[in-house]
Structures are given as structure tokens and as C-alpha cells.
Design a protein that fits this description.
With 192 residues, the chain is mainly α. It has eight helices and no strands. Helix 5 runs antiparallel to helix 6. It starts with 9 loop residues before the first helix and ends with a helix.
Amino acid sequence: TTSTGGESPPSANSNIVSAIESKITTGRSKKDAGDAAFKRGDVKGALRSYHEAVMYLSGVDRQVIANAKNIFDTGAPAALSDESKGEGKTEVDLILEKVYANMSACHIKQEKWKRALETADKALAKNPKNSKALFRKGKALGEMGLFVKAETALMEVKKISPAEEAIVDAEIARLRAVDNERQRAADKKMRG
């Protein structure tokens, strides 16, 4: 007998779901390894583990998970579910959000401001209310000399997480001092 339009044998369905679960498990363990390396002060090792986590998880998006579940449950791919339209978050989204925010912290430690900003933005794309990622974005913007944007991002952190107000105020004060020093140096250079 031949199989009809798009149906897969049950063993193929379970293999697909098993492969997805394996990727998620491996991605999670790579993230945990990155966290441990960061705590030990091994920033390069942490970044390596975080990059590996992203590689394992980047192809496992909501559409893939929804289709695999639908194939497994019904034998045929279905249209996007509510969860896969962005109304819910998958475990992959949550892990990637944390990985990107942590990568931003690593780049800040290395004073790679542009990379810190890029990875903070990727975390914020997963969750715009991630106060750690937003704080790191503000710090990176400030270090890049974009004080107005930095202050805007940092003020948003205070709205999202009022408990972090003292830390945010200290960072704004530090960035203002840096900006004032840059301005004085520029003025001095202009005067010759």
C-alpha cells in the first residue's frame, strides 16, 4: 500500500518530534554551560557555549514545533496555531531570550559595544520587557556615544522594573559624566 498525500508513517512522526526535543535539550544544556563559564569568568567559553545554543535552537521555531505536533497528532501539517502566530512563547523563545541577553553581558565585559547592542536587541525582539537586556542596550548605546538613545532605553528600564531604579540612575549619572568629558575634549580640540 502507498501512503496518501503528505502523511508520514508513525515512526517518522515520532522521529521528528524526538529530533526537536533533542535539539531543545542540547540547546538548554549549552546555555547552562555558558552560564557556568560566565560565572567562572570565562567570557570566551561562555560566548562559545551561547553560540552553540543558538545554533541548536535557531531552526526550532514556532512553525516547526507546531507542524511537528500537528503531524504527530493528525498525520498532516496544519495551519499555524494561535501559539505559532506569536500569541504565546515556546520554550525555545524563552531560552533564546536568555541566551541573547547573556551574550550581551559577555560583549559588554569585552567592551564590544556594537555586538552588545545587537545581542541585546535580539533578546528584546523575543521579549521587549526584558529589563536586563534593555539595561545592557542602554549601556552599550552610551558607550557608543549615543547618549540620548541610551538614556531613553535606561528610563524604560525604570518603568519596567522600578526595583532597579538606583542601578539605572547610577548608570545614567556615569554616562552623563562620560558624555560631558567627551564634550569637553571635543571643545578643547576645536579651540586648538
